[in-house]
Amino acid sequence: MVTRLDPKVFDAEAEVSWCPGCGDFGILRALKLALAELDIQPHQVLVVSGIGCGSKLPDYMAINGYMTIHGRPLPIATGAKLANPEMHVVVVNGDGDSYGIGGNHFVQTCRRNPNVTQVVENNQIYGLTKGQYSPTSDKGFVTTTSPDGAIELAFNPMAVALAAGATFIARAFSGEPKHMAQMIVEGIKHRGYALIDVLQPCVTFNRVNTYDWYRKRIYHLEEESYDATDREAAWTKAHEWEERIPLGILYRIEGLPTYEDQVPTLADGSPVGRLMELTKRPRPEQYESQKEQFF
Amino acid sequence: MADTITNDMSIMIGGDAGQGVESSGAGFCLALARAGLHVFALQDYRSQIRGGHNFYQIRLGERPRYSHSDPVHLLIALTPESVALHLDNLAEGGAVIFPDKFQIDEAPLKQRGLFVDALPLMAIAEEHGSRLMVNTAALGAAAGITEFPLEFMESVIRDNFARKGEQIVDSNLKVAQAAYTLARERYGSDFGYRLRPVDGAPKRMLINGNEAIAMGALAGGCRFISAYPMTPGTSVFEWLSALPHEYGVVIKHAEDEIAAICMAIGASFAGARSMTTTSGGGFCLMVEAMGLAGMTEVPLVIVEAQRGGPSTGLPTRTEQSDLLFAINAAQGEFPRIVTAPGTIEECFEAGWRAFNLAEKYQCPVIVMTDSFLASSLRTLELDAIDFAKVEIDRGATLTYEDLDQLTDGYRRFELTESGISPRAIPGHPKGVFAAASDEHDETGHITEESENRVRMMQKRMHKLAEAETEMRAPALYGPQDAEVTLVCWGSTFGACREAVDEINAAGGSASVLKFADLWPLPAEATERALRACRRTVAVEQNYTSQLAKLIRMTTGIDMDRTLNKYDGRPFAPEEIAAALGQEVVSGHKA
Amino acid sequence: MNYGQFLADVRKRGGFATDDEALAVASNVLMAVAEVLPQRDAEGITASLPPELLVYLRPTHAEPDPHFDSQLFLGWVVSTVDATGGRDKTGGGLDIYAAYSGDEAIRRCQCVFSVLKSLMSDRQQATMLACLPEEVGVWFSAA
Questions:
Q1: Tens digit of each residue's pLDDT, chain B (590 residues)
Q2: Å from A21 to nearest chain C CA?
């Protein structure tokens, strides 16, 4: 991919704490490529993350970043977007962060449709706490907290997002950074909430869902005649997992208004824009009429 | 006929939830306010939409009133239960008005010297309008018995029912007039309490604490509020939500309190003056995220309207039991500021001042109120809410012009003498930075290096010491050398003040020391104020005397005595005076 | 060299306990190579290898992903390293095994590379080197 901007502008001097060979490296690379491709400058983007190995990502990039708390990057990103709709807001967090502790925010964000792009580093395990099963771990997955195999069914982010009303649902694989970057580009270009669930091996703690495991199962929707605007087809694809796992855009519907589009107070300017104009003494007369309701 | 007392009484409206007790009470208050009277109104309602006893207690007078007051001189009972429940709180010579269909044993009431009259309110309502207008009939009768000119009730009826059409307005007016005439006929001039319009009184607002906070927040530049409904914090959010769009306040009803505070943090990080509002239970959920704001130095305003706890507790009742929780909430140590307005005027100021404190010290600011202050109505002079006094201080917030001038790389968490670092609003090429909830260095990068950790802790905590220098000393009300000083915070000030006035009027010697800036507690000023007191009594709406504990923790000074109330009902001045063993000689006590 | 000899060689050079372990390492290294091997180069490189290995070297894409880098390459091999010692006893710090898994994975790559190189002509080696991500190429050359 020859990008419009040199992806190196996003390089930061920070010691990366990920395990050697971690899938997060691919995601970091793809995100830089995608932003460069879209000619988004470091100051024009805010990357919000939660807690988890992959949520350290903003520390390794030269961008506006906010590494927050476990499960909460979506509402924080939504607040930032509502305050400054001109900012590109990207959320990067893991499967535990997004689908477990932050599950409610995930569902609400899908139906809320803010113009926020979310990249989920889905490695089906808790890596930072060293190997406990996650919401997306397959049933029967053995870890330190599921010694007899996980009892719950795995959380299906594709199907949940679709059911909750998400307007852009895609899946990528950390072993294919070029394709992943394309998915992120499409997600950012999409007006509305975009989910890019990235399948990503945890090379240290997940010995089941390895690169090899994914490689044997993944295929690209782009290579089949697939209509991503077909909701029912997307529903079917969202449930493919055991034998074949589709990559690409599962569902995409353009032209719907974003949440911000529908906030009347944002029509003539943003809170940040107005705040920059705040003077030391606001004109009192603009508020005086508010007293009338009390007498 | 005994002496009559004019414009100094308490009126109560009691009934079931869903009977319109609140709107009748508010309507009566507004009529009184329009007549130039000062009003303080306490709402007492249960956490249900229908059923359960509610009441509305109005204290009125020609001077400002800061609390409700017992006993009650006129009870408008919309259910038989209201009579039974409030019988003991009725003053001798008082009156009870109720619809004649109630089966009420009038003998014990009359024995106590009460005017008891079963009025055909329902018949009047049905004759001139409909059964639904029985409350209007009751208010008309109340005006009649007190000789309160009906025109004030009529003006409120016109305003309140205007939306429902001329016919409804007319019917209500007829109902009120008929009930008024009947009451005048029955009582003539026998009732010892009168209401008269005050000539030349200025126009006043009738407003509660939440509305005042919301107005303050608006004037203080709040342009983002996200919240999750929780009584009694909700109406701050609702008031800002109802504003015309031109004010540009973005509102977000979030999926839960965690999302609510996180959205506010996100908006503030992006550069907007942001707030969230809740009660204790919701604040519990917000605590972890508040720590994030503390660690990443994001300004944030949280309004915590307390209610009876723990857990669901007393959802619609008042308490001051979250003070030490608010001061200590969240893991780890970080600066936060806690203020507690005690009056509605102070609510307005707290509303805008909180944003200045938050941006100046780049930390969370918690404004503590309680159900009583949040929802009690009081008349307020128009200039008590003075928008011209509002100042916006964005502290070390950098403008884009400031950033243009930047030569070195920007360091969001730069070590400074005050601990306050210049804060860039994301969006400028020279102000790019990442912040982390992990310990970080000056640029924001994550590090666990020991020396950096120590410097960063000192930097953040130093902001607390800086803030302490502008925290206000406790305010003394009453004589300097009083025999007893009531020490209080927040809404109990109103009852303490009224109690002290009565004690002193009766020849006693009492004062109030009121704390409003609670954290960081200004230690020296607190110590100085308390050393000047002869005998101290901490009056708190909680079980554990949390302010007294805070004072002891900060200054080592013990209160001589504590007075606590935790039944969810606000202190009445008489209750405080009685607890002090002081005889209260009230002008209208028989 | 036949398949059995290949595995025995990898096992010996890598110090692996079993042929199964040697195969796991070899197959993952080869599959990682397959990720970066253009279809046009595959045949030339694999001609001299035991046919049993070809299943792992089947190129994944006609044109490899240009952004497939050494970290991604390493990911395939780290999966074969026993990086965990059971339950976490490090109190949340960097896992003592995982910390060295990168070095171990590079060592494993190199042991497979060295056996491969012994079966390849100079030209085949040069072709393969050109396909590998930069750092991996360094490991390959040094093997």
A1: 457 999 999 999 999 888 888 899 999 999 999 999 999 999 987 766 666 889 999 999 999 999 999 999 999 999 999 998 998 899 988 999 999 888 888 888 888 888 887 889 999 999 999 999 999 999 999 999 999 999 999 999 999 999 999 999 999 999 999 999 999 998 877 899 999 999 999 999 999 999 999 999 999 999 999 999 999 999 999 999 999 999 999 999 999 999 999 999 999 999 999 999 999 999 999 999 999 999 999 999 999 999 999 999 999 999 999 999 999 999 999 999 999 999 999 999 999 999 999 999 999 999 999 999 999 999 999 999 999 999 999 999 998 889 999 988 899 999 999 999 999 999 999 999 999 999 999 999 999 999 999 999 999 999 999 999 999 999 999 999 999 999 999 999 999 999 999 999 999 999 999 999 999 999 999 999 999 999 999 999 999 999 999 999 999 999 999 999 999 999 999 999 999 986 544 433 33
A2: 4
- Cα(B432)–Cα(A41) distance, integer angstroms: 10
Look at strands B300-306 and B274-278 and give their pairing. parallel
Distance from CA of C72 to the nearest CA of A (A): 6
User: Of A279, A37, A45, which Cα lies nearest the Cα of A178?
Assistant: A37
Whether residue B433 contacts residue B410, with contact meaning beta carbons closer than 8 Å, is answered with yes
The answer to whether B394 contacts chain A (CB < 8 Å) is yes
A31 touches chain B (CB under 8 A): no
Instruction: List chains adjacent to chain B, taking adjacency as at least 3 C-beta pairs closer than 8 Å.
Output: A
Q: Model pTM?
A: 0.95
Q: Which residues of B touch A272 (CB under 8 A)?
A: 270-272, 425, 427
**CB-CB neighbors (< 8 A) of C60 in chain A:** 215
By Cβ distance, the residue of A75, A87, A270 closest to B262 is A75
Residues in A touching B219 (Cβ below 8 Å): 282, 284, 287
CB atoms within 10 A of CB B342: 27
Q: What is the C-alpha separation between A89 and A115, in angstroms, rounded?
A: 8
Among A43, A47, A104, A128, most B C-beta atoms within 10 A, so best to mutate, is A43
CB-based contact B215 A287, cutoff 8 Å: yes
CA distance A171 to A195: 8
